[in-house]
Structure formats: structure tokens, C-alpha cells
């Protein structure tokens, strides 16, 4: 297993108390494969990715759990040691490219800096390699764009620059966090196509974070559905999308638009605040299948063939 997350629990210091926000995350990524991490905004997807990279915001810490990369537990590494892995072995494409790019440096300088730090290239070598990377991510006139500042580029172009930065050190694992959120539909398709092409060409292992379950058809070998800081369903992409088991996964699929004449069927209610305390199953207040047990007891994972599902409906299967 290339990357394995075991029982990851994350807490935040809040008004002199500790609150759990990730509640026992288990993830597995095989070499050359794609894992999709799916769920509504606020369920903890990005925090899971930031935990893997040890880039957590202030007041947050890993309370418990292990994160193994090629057999090394990243949780136990010193900051100097994790820095050698972060960016070089495991890289991340952040959700908002305008935030990821520094407005006072040219895009060429920013990509070249990654190459100098992780690849040890000199100024001339870094510039040549940067122009090559910009060409790879389909930025037109890369020699000219090398000197451009972020504000001179469109959203789609900025996202391509962020992808180039992520690939600069030739990582084995790429985490793409909602990489098309702020882009229009046409540019979204271009970015997704680019990621697919680069994954195949470079043999990347990919963690693709999205709230759109339909996108996993394009990318994923395995899907982990996340809700309220937990994985609620885990399985192969084909079987999970054809026959979802967890009521939340069923709701996500049924809420996808089909044709203009079909009404949307959204999941009732909203995702609870990730710092709140909930008794029983976290989804019970939005679930049409709930029983009395769901109000008081949090379900464990139940294994059904190649699937794991956190729901009392499958207790006796």
C-alpha cells in the first residue's frame, strides 16, 4: 500500500476545550490508483488532506491515528523530515489558485522555486524546466507566460500554474482538492482532462477531493464517502455508484441532475457543524431510513462483500 490512513482523529482547541472534528478516518491508496474523497462542504475532506501533509491550521492537531507513506508513519516525523516529503513525494493542488499563488512574484519564479528547493536545479536549469512544465499543462506561449504575474492570468490558467507547481518535484502522490470549483464548465472539463492525461503519463497516484459524485466516474478506482468527519461508505467506484448502500450516498446520487424536465431531489436539512456533538448516527436527522437505534448509538463499519458501510441497516447482513 502506497499511502494508508488509520483511525485518524483530529481535534481543535475551542474556548479552552478540545472538540473532535475528524472521527476515525481510514483511507487506502494503491500505487497508480485514484481514490475519490466525496462529501458536502464542511464534512472534513480538506482537513483530511491537510492532515496527510501535516499542514493543519493553528489550534488543530492530530489527536490519534497513523498516516503511513511507503511504510513510514508521517505523524511521527519531525518538521524538517516532513518537509522533505511534502511537495516532493506528496503534492497538493489547492482549491483556490488565487490564494495558492503569491501575487508579487511571477508565475515563472514561483514554479522555479519548487525546482530549486526539491530538485536542486540552478537558475538557468529551473527556468528551462519551468517553461517545459508550463507547456505540459497546456499554457500557451510558456516563454511569455513565464514572466506573467498571477493577476494577469484567467482562473483556468492560474489553476494550470498550480498544477505545474504540484508536478514540479515529480511527486508519487497528488492530492487534488476540488480543483475545478471556481471555474466555468468548459474550463472545468479542460482541467479534468489535463489531470487524467498527466496521471496516465506520469503514473501518479491520485486523491481526488470533490463534492460532485458524478466526477468520480471519470477518475476513481475507489470512492470514500465522507460525512461529519467520518467515512460512511467505502468501496470500488463501479459498484458504489451502481448500488449505493448508505442513505447519505443514496441521497448524493439521487440529487444529481439528470435531464431538464426532471426535478432535483436534494437531501433535506444541512450538514451539522463539524465541531458539534451528536449522539448516535450523525446523519439521523436527515435520514428517511432511521430507526430508534440511530438516535443513541453511532454505527461501526459493516462489511458487505467489497464494501464497508457505516449504517445500522446492515447490522445483520
Order of helices and strands: EEEHEEHEHHHHHEHEHEEHHEE
Shape: globular
Beta-strand percent range: 15-25%
N- to C-terminal distance? 28 Å
What does this structure look like?
With 317 residues, the chain is an alpha/beta fold. The protein folds into 2 domains: 3-89 and 171-314, P-loop containing nucleotide triphosphate hydrolases (Rossmann fold, 3-Layer(aba) Sandwich), CATH 3.40.50; 100-170, no CATH class. It has 11 helices and 12 strands. The chain has an 8-stranded mixed β-sheet with strand order 6-7-8-3-9-10-12-11, with helices on both faces. A 4-stranded antiparallel β-sheet has the order 2-1-4-5, covered by helices on one side. The two termini are 28 Å apart. The mean pLDDT is 92.
Amino acid at each position: 500500500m502506497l499511502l494508508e490512513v488509520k483511525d485518524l482523529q483530529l481535534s481543535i482547541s475551542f474556548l479552552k476545550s478540545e472538540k473532535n472534528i475528524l472521527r476515525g478516518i481510514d483511507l487506502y491508496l494503491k500505487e497508480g490508483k485514484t481514490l475519490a474523497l466525496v462529501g458536502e462542504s464542511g464534512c472534513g475532506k480538506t482537513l483530511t488532506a491537510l492532515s496527510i501533509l501535516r499542514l493543519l491550521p493553528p489550534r488543530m492537531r492530530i489527536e490519534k491515528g497513523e498516516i503511513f507513506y511507503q511504510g513510514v508513519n508521517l505523524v511521527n516525523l519531525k518538521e524538517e523530515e516532513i518537509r522533505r516529503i511534502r511537495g516532493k513525494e506528496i503534492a497538493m493542488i489547492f482549491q483556490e489558485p488565487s490564494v495558492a499563488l503569491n501575487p508579487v512574484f511571477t508565475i515563472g519564479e514561483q514554479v522555479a522555486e519548487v525546482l530549486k528547493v526539491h530538485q536542486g536545479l540552478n537558475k538557468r536549469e529551473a527556468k528551462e524546466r519551468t517553461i517545459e512544465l508550463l507547456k505540459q499543462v497546456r499554457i500557451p506561449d510558456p516563454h511569455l507566460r513565464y514572466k506573467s504575474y498571477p493577476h494577469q492570468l484567467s482562473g483556468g490558467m492560474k489553476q494550470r500554474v498550480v498544477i505545474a507547481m504540484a508536478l514540479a518535484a515529480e511527486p508519487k502522490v497528488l492530492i487534488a482538492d476540488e480543483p475545478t470549483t471556481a471555474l466555468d464548465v468548459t474550463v472545468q472539463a479542460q482541467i479534468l482532462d489535463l489531470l487524467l492525461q498527466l496521471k496516465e503519463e506520469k503514473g501518479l497516484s491520485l486523491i481526488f477531493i470533490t463534492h460532485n459524485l458524478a466526477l468520480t466516474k471519470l477518475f476513481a478506482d475507489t470512492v470514500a464517502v465522507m460525512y461529519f468527519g467520518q467515512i460512511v461508505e467505502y468501496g470500488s467506484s463501479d459498484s458504489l455508484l451502481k448500488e449505493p448502500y448508505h442513505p447519505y450516498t443514496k441521497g448524493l446520487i439521487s440529487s444529481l441532475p439528470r435531464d431538464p424536465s426532471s426535478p432535483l431531489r436534494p437531501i433535506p436539512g444541512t450538514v451539522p457543524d463539524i465541531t458539534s456533538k451528536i449522539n448516535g448516527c450523525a446523519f439521523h436527522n436527515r435520514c428517511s431510513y432511521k430507526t430508534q437505534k440511530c438516535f443513541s448509538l453511532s454505527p461501526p463499519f459493516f462489511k458487505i462483500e467489497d464494501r464497508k458501510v457505516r449504517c445500522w441497516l446492515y447490522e445483520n447482513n
